[in-house]
Amino acid sequence: MRVTVETQRMVLRPMVPEDYEEAFQWCGDPQVNTYMIYPLYTKAEDVRTWLEGRDLDDPDNYDLGFELKETGELIGSGGLVYDPEKDVWTVGYNIRVDQWGKGLVPEAIQGLIDYVRRVRKVRAIEGVFAAENYQSQRVMEKLGMHYVCDTEYDKLDGSRHYEAKLFRREFT
Length: 172
Hints:
Elements lengths: L4 E2 L3 E4 L6 H8 L2 H4 L10 H9 L8 E8 L5 E10 L4 E8 L8 H16 L4 E7 L3 H9 L3 E9 L6 E10 L2
Parallel strand pairs: 5-6
Antiparallel strand pairs: 1-2, 2-3, 3-4, 4-5, 6-8, 7-8
């Protein structure tokens, strides 16, 4: 979606093809990619192709870049995607390793939740993460989400299988 959301430390904005080199810093990092569903990007040009193929006008996809206000650096991306079959918004994100542990992901996603709740009906949000990824569990907890059940997922290329957990937050 073509929106911009400001949080205390970031501007969340649509990513454009010209962002490909900065985005490659996390999309091409094996450590960041460990639990991601997408295969590791090995060429920055492939990130550009991905960015060129995104539909920035999809009203059910608030996937934005995380830009630090202080430096203007693009350090990650993520957001909320609506699943009409379940009537649930799914949380997803990734961020450069040097920005881990600073509370930036919960800040960004909470900013998006607040924005989307102002413009759309949000009954619930969900997130699935690898059971061994305790950092993502902590993000979900900071967003007020709670354990629902065990589940599993595979990387899109089938290269890895993960035991996972599903967390959810209901809104009234």
